[in-house]
Amino acid sequence: MAKRFEFIRSKRNDMGLTIEQLAQKAHVSPDLISRLERGNRNDISLSRLESILKVLDLKLGDIFDQTELDTYGNQFRRAFYLLSSEKKERYAKVFLEIMELEN
After folding, report:
1. Which of 3, 8, 35, 97 shows the smallest number of beta carbons within 10 Å?
2. Within 10 A of 26 (CB to CB), how many other CB atoms are there?
3. pTM exceeding the 0.85 threshold for the entire prediction
């Protein structure tokens, strides 16, 4: 069986969190986190999932298009969203130009 929520372990490890720390911050049980990461539980309430994702600095939409998170992509998105509006616009234009070069 594919582990639908295996990205949780990867993201949690990237953030240096233990299962217990993530569970405490998300107000869920460590058992729930453990079972999700191992693929032993696929039924989770939306509110619990959102609590876990919030701690992991993710949004619900982040998990629908992929089952495994790209660490560099997440780092890029976090850094990009911290930029001022002016820098976001400038960097977005540059990034789009780079993408056009590859087509």
Report:
1. 97
2. 20
3. no
